[in-house]
Design goal:
Elements lengths: L9 H20 L4 E2 L9 E6 L6 H17 L4 E5 L1 H7 L4 H9 L6 E6 L2 E4 L13 E11 L8 E10 L2 H16 L2 H7 L3 E2 L10 E2 L1 H20 L3 E2 L5 E3 H7 L1 H4 L6 E2 L8 E3 L4 H8 L11 E10 L15 E11 L4 H19 L5 E6 L13 H18 L3 E4 L9 E7 L5 E10 L2 H4 L4 E2 L5 E2 L2 E10 H12 L12 E5 L5 H13 L4 E3 L6 H10 L4 E5 L1 H6 L1 E6 L3 E7 H13 L4
Parallel strand pairs: 10-14, 16-17, 23-24, 23-25
Antiparallel strand pairs: 1-2, 2-7, 3-4, 4-5, 6-7, 8-9, 11-13, 12-13, 14-15, 15-22, 16-18, 18-19, 19-22, 20-21, 25-26, 26-27
Helix pairs in contact: 1-2, 6-14
The protein binds one RNA strand of 76 nucleotides through strand 6, strand 7, helix 6, strand 19 and strand 22.
Length: 585
RNA sequence: GCUGUUGUAGCUCAGUCGGCAGAGCACUUCCUUGGUAAGGAAGAGGUCGGCAGUUCGAAUCUGCUCAACAGCUCCA
């Protein structure tokens, strides 16, 4: 993207103009199509159309050709504005534009851009003439709801991208192809980290030995670190009676997302847990607590179940059963800031260790005051807690953006967001302030003055859910995990059968140090074994033949450093052990 | 859930007009015993995603369904 040279006015104007050219072409080819909206995005542009029949990839080719003609015509873009009545008259055949005009504030200027016989309601800015757009590509056509609401009609959205020259376009398309090669959903299967089965179902991945190994390493790392930071591990049930969720509010506010067993007529209805909070709360409730006991930090490696809609699943990123590095902190108001900071510190520590710290962004997820039925609790309290949270975030010096309507139903969140190879943003880690559930569950503590009070509860994760984190690590490292995470750290490769015994002794020496390895004793040439180990992105290959056997060495080939030559076995073990211990990247 | 695309061997993919199910890699066996990204030969491997329908005959046409992919909505 950096390579592209854009017309003055920025790439947004450039792309926005391209979207007008596309809409112009669509109108010429399909006059009955109604125009919705067509903005520039961070990575290109799109336009939404209301069409009688869905558009196909064939249509996109036709539209691209028509765009070429329009660009050749060298039309100028002219801006003009109209009084409301005339604007409505001009757009009388465009119901979506009329809806937009009617919603503009009274005093707002209603502006249009015109290029030849094509006019669009638009605030601009735009390029001066369409011929500035030298290279473009329509990438995909998909459905998109009018105004982003599933209650509205589904429109046809065409995505595209454009540049000032063909070279930049080619480079961009190549970069998109390269990104796809890192796609965890493809790479993760190729590297035998996970698979899926249509007999098991959507959103229910099978973690293969290698994928399960990576997650085991991560899990041990998380649990050890959390123990060090004063957490106490719980293991709570994966299902509960509906009674529990009725108290927590999940029954009313999260029911669509839950797997419920049985129906209302049954004496007892059970549901798989979508969250761990009410379960860990039961642990707190086993006895009376003094303010002196707080904060109490519970953690759990918690498998959760959420009934995602069928179209929402994606690889290991959105699934129906996943395991969260979960935890809840019960604390006093005075401890809230300190505990919150502790959660952020832990999350940042995890991200830094994994090498993901530079790839995340922070989102302060607030409630939507206009959509109160989605949340529980008092509006004033919401505002007050959100203000407290904003103060804490400001004290932390985090660069965050605020987002309305993204809060949990019981409180505001700090979401640590990350983008996948397709540019789609997902929450990796979340830290939430809950000022409501303690009261619902009657979780009290006795304060210094002898009165009973309700604590704050922090719902937090330290590195998110293991499956999603694994997915993003696959994409981050293109499958070439740092040695400490690699499912297979070393491949021992005897040159021929003569060296199998020595290879076995190397294997045993490494295994004794807890190093994960495979010993390739297949009847293949060394070049073949190396090629395969390279494709599997194994950090270290140890070639052993006559020379090595004689000297007690291994010929090391490092994924990162290339050929290192013959090294004494002990020296290699020391080298790799240090690398693993320091979690080097 | 919605819109679109796609499902043929473990993987990547051919398969024309409805007429015997194909290739490369991987796998097995044998030969080869080797020095840093594919040694050679032979063999085995298929409910053509599934279920119905049309037809003398379906991988191919139709319907339903399951799954995967991109997006929308939703979300860790």
């Amino acid at each position: 993207m950096e390579r592209a040279v854009f017309f003055e006015g920025g790439k947004k104007a450039f792309w926005h103009t391209t979207s007008h050219i596309m809409a112009h072409a669509v109108k010429r080819l399909y006059p009955d199509v109604k125009l919705a909206i067509g903005p520039a995005t961070d990575t290109g542009f799109y336009y939404d159309f209301d069409t009688a029949t869905p558009l196909t990839m064939e249509d996109l080719k036709k539209i691209e050709k028509e765009m070429k003609r329009i660009i050749k015509e060298g039309l100028k873009l002219e801006k003009f504005s109209l009084p409301r009545a005339e604007a409505l008259e001009l757009m009388k055949d465009e119901p979506y534009k009329i809806e937009l005009i009617n919603e503009l504030p009274e005093d707002e200027e209603i502006t249009f851009y015109k290029q030849g016989d094509f006019v669009d309601l638009c605030a601009g800015p735009h390029l001066e003439k369409v011929s500035e757009v030298k290279a473009y590509k329509l990438l995909s056509v998909t459905g998109a709801y009018w105004r982003g609401s599933e209650k509205n009609k589904m429109l046809q959205r065409i995505y595209g991208v454009s540049f000032v020259n063909q070279e930049d376009l080619e480079a961009h398309l190549t970069a998109l192809e390269e990104a796809k090669k890192r796609d965890h959903n493809k790479l993760g299967r190729e590297l035998e980290l996970f698979t899926t089965s249509e007999y098991i179902g959507q959103g229910l991945p099978i973690l293969m030995p290698k994928g399960a190994r990576v997650i085991q390493v991560l899990q041990r790392f998380v649990e050890d670190e959390e123990e060090r930071r004063g957490y106490q591990l719980t293991r709570t049930p994966m299902m509960a009676k509906s009674d529990l969720y009725k108290i927590s509010g999940h029954w009313n506010h999260y029911r669509d997302g839950m797997f419920i067993m049985g129906n209302e007529d049954d004496k007892e209805v059970f549901a798989l847990r979508p969250m761990t909070c009410p379960f860990q709360f039961q642990a707190y409730l086993t006895k009376m607590h003094s303010y002196r006991d707080l904060p109490i930090r519970y953690n759990e490696t918690a498998t959760l179940f959420r009934n995602e809609a069928s179209g929402e699943m994606h690889g290991l990123i959105r699934i129906r059963q996943f395991t969260l590095a979960e935890g809840h902190i019960v604390c006093t108001p005075a401890q809230l800031e300190e505990e919150f900071k502790g959660c952020v510190d832990l999350a940042v520590f995890m991200l830094t260790t994994l090498g993901l710290d530079e790839d995340v962004s922070y989102r302060f997820s607030k409630w939507d005051a206009n959509n109160r039925e989605k949340y529980i609790g008092d509006p004033d309290e919401w505002e007050s807690v959100q203000n407290t949270m904003r103060e804490i975030l400001d004290h932390l010096g985090i660069d965050y953006k605020e987002a309305d309507g993204e809060a949990a139903f019981y409180g505001p969140k700090l979401d640590i967001q990350i983008r996948n190879v397709h540019g789609k943003e997902d929450t990796l880690i979340t830290i939430q302030i809950d000022f409501q559930l303690a009261e619902r569950f009657e979780m009290e503590y006795t304060d210094a003055d002898g009165t009973k009070k309700f604590p704050y509860i922090l719902h937090r994760s330290s590195l998110g859910c293991y499956e999603r984190t694994l997915a993003l690590l696959i994409e981050k490292y293109a499958g070439a995990f740092p040695t400490w995470l690699a499912p297979v750290q070393v491949k021992v490769m005897p040159i021929s059968e003569k060296h199998f015994d020595y290879a076995k002794s190397v294997e045993n020496a490494l295994k004794a140090q807890g190093i994960r390895l495979e010993n390739d004793t297949r009847n293949e040439k060394i070049g073949y074994k190396i090629r395969e180990a390279q494709k599997q992105k194994i950090p270290y290959m140890l070639v052993v033949g006559d020379k090595e056997e004689e000297d007690g060495t291994v010929a090391v080939r490092s994924r990162k450093e290339g050929e290192l030559g013959a090294i004494a076995l002990d020296a290699f073990i020391e080298k790799i052990s240090r690398e693993i211990k320091t979690k080097a990247r």
